[in-house]
Amino acid sequence: MNSPLIVNYCQQKVFQQDNCYCLYDSDQVKNFTPQMFEADYWQQRNAVNGTAQGRGTTYFIQHQQQQWVLRHYYRGGLIGKLIHDSYLFTGYQKTRAAQEFALLSQLAVLGLPAPKPVAYRITRSGLTYQADIISERINHAKDLVALLSEQTLAAASWRAIGHCIQRFHQQGIYHHDLNAHNILIDDQEKIWLIDFDRGEQRKPAQQWQQQNMDRLLRSFNKECLKFSQFHWQPDNWRQLMEGYLS
């Protein structure tokens, strides 16, 4: 994975103790503790204001005036059934959390609509590690699956989604899992992309960009099979591609 160039996005500080290594943005985190990566820490403070289910539980945190997302890294696919959340350690900067934090920092520098990173934790155990990350929560937003299970979207919204993806691709931003769950629309009709685990900054190229779009189209078709009512039509893809190619 290529590490993106970070251009003084935030004031990064490192905390290291025994087998625990953390990096955080000191502008956002004033009183750092490694316990902030534990759901119990926030639950005891009545600071958890929501959860989401995926491979594991994602926690939505209210911290003072800030809204955060706490996520633990889990493996997917067949190997994930055998090795749930452990990864081979080859250096802190090569861990999943460090790479995602770096990419989110670069997206902030580029002014792209994605969550800002807050902190990450690496916990080593011999030759392996586990990881957690905290990032900014996009307030008053819903993902496309939630929206399309409730309502249709206007053609202008589909074009805006396509144009948003185009902005990322023009900057060489590869999203490893571009799907309908990872595209949000907030209450101001702004489009956001989330979940950049295993993403990276690459040289723009038609092949991987097309693979991103193919994956997104498959996700819409897949969601159609899950819901008895899902407001998605093939013409919506045409509208999305109009925005992407404009």
Automatic annotation (TrEMBL):
Enzyme class: transferase
Catalytic activity: an alpha-Kdo-(2->6)-lipid IVA + ATP = a 4-O-phospho-alpha-Kdo-(2->6)-lipid IVA + ADP + H(+)
Pathway(s) per entry: Bacterial outer membrane biogenesis; LPS core biosynthesis
Alphabetic keyword roster: ATP-binding, Cell inner membrane, Cell membrane, Kinase, Lipopolysaccharide biosynthesis, Membrane, Nucleotide-binding, Transferase
EC number: 2.7.1.166
Signal peptide segment: none
Entry membrane topology: Peripheral membrane protein
Presence of the UniProt keyword Repeat in the record: no
GO MF term list: kinase activity
UniProt entry tagged with the keyword Nucleotide-binding: yes
Subcellular location: Cell inner membrane
Top-level taxon of origin: Bacteria
Active site: D177
Transmembrane annotation, as ranges: none
UniProt record similarity statement: Belongs to the protein kinase superfamily. KdkA/RfaP family.
HAMAP family in UniProt: KDO_kinase
Function: Catalyzes the ATP-dependent phosphorylation of the 3-deoxy-D-manno-octulosonic acid (Kdo) residue in Kdo-lipid IV(A) at the 4-OH position.
Name of the protein described by the UniProt record: 3-deoxy-D-manno-octulosonic acid kinase
Organism: Thalassotalea insulae
